[in-house]
Design brief:
0% strand
């Protein structure tokens, strides 16, 4: 209990809220996985990079879905099977999934 209280006092003394949140996340990683401070910082940075990669993938998937909808509406106007409800959603999900996967791979492959 004393260790938890001393940790709370240490975090309370940090003035910058961003630095306090970073240090709190590092301490939680240390407590959860038993890492030292240096390795917990590395894990936090890896988690941040993966979070940005996932957001990029979501943005790519959303953009591809947005661009796909007029194409699908044109196909629905010309084909009866495309107007079926069971045909609409899997196509949109497939386009989103493919663009999300490509968006995840893009930073790793090119940047």
């Amino acid at each position: 209990m004393e260790q938890k209280l001393s940790q709370d006092r240490y975090l309370r003394d940090i003035g910058d809220p961003a630095a306090r949140a970073r240090e709190n996340a590092i301490k939680r990683i240390q407590a959860s996985y038993g890492y030292d401070h240096e390795n917990a910082e590395k894990v936090l940075e890896i988690m941040r990079v993966r979070q940005v990669e996932q957001l990029w993938g979501l943005a790519c998937g959303a953009l591809a879905t947005y661009k796909w909808m007029p194409i699908q509406q044109g196909m629905e106007a010309s084909s009866a099977i495309m107007r079926k409800r069971w045909m609409r959603y899997p196509m949109v999900a497939g386009v989103f999934g493919a663009a999300y996967f490509c968006g995840l791979q893009l930073p790793v492959r090119f940047f």
